[in-house]
Amino acid sequence: MTMDCILDLRHKLCGQYSRDLGSFAQYQANQLKSKPDQLFDTDGQTKPAVGFWAYWEQCIRLRDIIFHKIGEDWVFLALLGIIMALMSFTMDYVIEKCQEAKIWLFEELSFSLALQFVAWVTYSLMFILFATGFTHLVSPQAIGSGIPEMKTILRGVVLKEYLTFRTLVAKIVGLCSSLGSTLPLGKEGPFVHIASIVATLLGKLVGSFRGIYENESRRSEMLAAACAVGVACTFAAPIGGVLFSIEVTATFFAVRNYWRGFFSAVCGALIFRLLAFWFKDEETITALFKTTLRTEVPFDALELIIFAGIGVACGLGGSLFILLHRKIILFTRRHKRMSAFLQKNRFIYPGIIAILISTLTFPPGLGQYFAGQLTARRAINELFSNITWTTGQADDLEEEAILRHWNPPATNIYVTLLLYVIMTFWMGALSNTLPIPAGVFVPVFCCGAAFGRLVGESMSTWFPEGIRSGDVVRKIVPGGYAVVGAAALSGSVTRTISTSVIVFELTGQISHVLPAVVAVLIANAVAHFLQPSFYDSIIRLKRLPYLPDLINTKQDAWTVFVEDIMIKDISYITFVSTYYDLQELLTNSSFKSYPLVDTPESMILLGSIQRFELERLLWLHLSSNQTLLNDRKPSSHTLSPPPSPGRFRKTSSPSIVRKNSSPKLPQPIPRFVVTKVDETGTEFDGNLDEQDTIPAEPERKEMKQKLHHSLLNLKDDTDYHYDTLQLPLRSILKKTNSESPFLSRRASTGDLRMDGDLFYRDLAAKQRKESIVEDVPFVFKKTSMPESLSKLFKVVCI
Hints:
Elements (H helix, E strand, L loop, with lengths): L2 H32 L17 H18 L2 H37 L4 H26 L8 H8 L10 H16 L7 H18 L4 H5 L1 H20 L2 H12 L8 H21 L24 H32 L1 H9 L3 H13 L15 H8 L13 H10 L6 H19 L9 H22 L4 E3 L2 E3 L3 H17 L4 H9 L5 H16 L5 H9 L19 H4 L13 H10 L4 E5 L7 E6 H11 L78 H7 L6 E2 L5 E2 L27 H19 L17 H13 L1
Antiparallel strand pairs: 1-2, 3-4, 5-6
């Protein structure tokens, strides 16, 4: 090749195309500049926006500058804290007004005791029934605390519909309604769930934070911070909220997430207390339950023994509370008839519990003996008061009201406190089994405070002059015992140490920091040996896919190998397994899934198959009237269908045995045959022989309930043949609304699979064991929302 050819080729490859592209780009630029109504004006600059769009562009530019200088994480966390503070303050206001309305209604009907009782009971009943119906109608996932589900989600498990807008609405409305009923329920757990939902929706809906939502690791970090914000905005306790979220929701906590949770919790707690100051609820920014306990030498060293005893008692009490809650739920599960009845009539159980608790707390009745008219917040304020009730001396009207509540004429302080502890204890456990949004922290907090107050008042009676230590005599402070008891019992139930820190932030004093920490540690140690935490107990009851904590290693743990604890004789499926093998596998085992291996010799794991899929596979292949040849040797018995679908058991005789007069092997019947259906629902089977037909089946609904398989019909000495009863399939030729029992005997593959899917969906729903606290959908017909709400209000009114 000559030099001229090379230059010519180079010119064609490089020079010519470069000049063409350059000229084309220049031509396009000139065309854009020549059009005045395009994006560019004569100077080549974009047209400035006017009016609203000008302000919008400035806001976008300011947002970009803030995100660039500060970072989207800081903005996201601050915005999350502010939103949750606004929501918490608004919900507290609504709940407080609902509770005050109940007291106002009771006082206005003072002229009639009967009307007072009816109003007291009906008020709580209406709120509980509304919370039950609204929660089931909008989102059943809003039932319960929410912390067990958040623990599961933060472990990496995806729980559908738990972090959606529908769940947020159901949680907020249901929580306000349930707490407004004045039943012994808490706010902390549900509000942690609410904060997690808000964090998820912020990352999903706001375009600037979408990167947080799409990144799985960052999303988990923000959810952990949201849990801290939920606790901080409930009690205005940022430090305790962060520690509580770490202890409750996380098994392995990344230190890099600590500043996120702390920053967001501080923002939320600060705005929450500022709102109370701005709306004149507080004179200044103070603690939520401000106390005036003695700060100079608040306790004697000898009192630490009593505080340790409170820790032991609270550890036992916390374990008993968890056990009682679990026994109530298991009691309803074991009685299948009662459980089925309560699931069909969902308003009966909440209504009975609401009527029972409201009747017992009726102030002129039994409620006068354990301060039944007090709300949880007011009871905590009075239990933390810095006066000694046993002296009976009040310096002002507020102290006089406290003594009137806890020292009624017909009894004394000790009986009142003891009854309050007992009644709040079992009513709190019972109320947390209701299918409504509810927490457990506040009831056990009140119960522990009352128990500590009981011990403190007893100590002040036994030592009226105080405890002498050398030449110094220090009087007993019963309010300090109440603070220690509240921290110890709530810590033993939730299995956290941070409750001691939450108590300090709630009261605004750290004078009893050492007794509280000692009591909480002892209570946790005692409860740890007896019961799991309240949230872990709910996880086990709901059977959530949650990995438990690692067991404590022992000195000889290094000598234990995996083969010592593994299951060696397992059931598995291979590529050469027959339908008979699958049937035997399902008959002799009850596992939910089975491993799939290559061959029995190699045992190479290829995957797993759910039991549901195997049952569906057998049902599809054994329901087509097709002869299936099997390699198994014949036996003298046949397998008959089980009494309920979804299981396979051996019996002595088949349900249908078909006689075969021909000695030769039968030809396989076509699997799907389209048949003609007339107006009356009768069918024509084409070329089928008379001996191969099956008698007409009963009605469709009865067949759905009594559906079963006929298996393994013996036709000769060498082969097994499978046949089944006729299935109620729909015709693919004609649509009809009639409920005729003579529908088409065969249909298309899609029709068969569709019926199979519907059947097994119903079967799975019937076989699922659910309790009253699990997320069971509230079933309504396909009607509009106004019609559904009208039905709900009619039921509530009745």
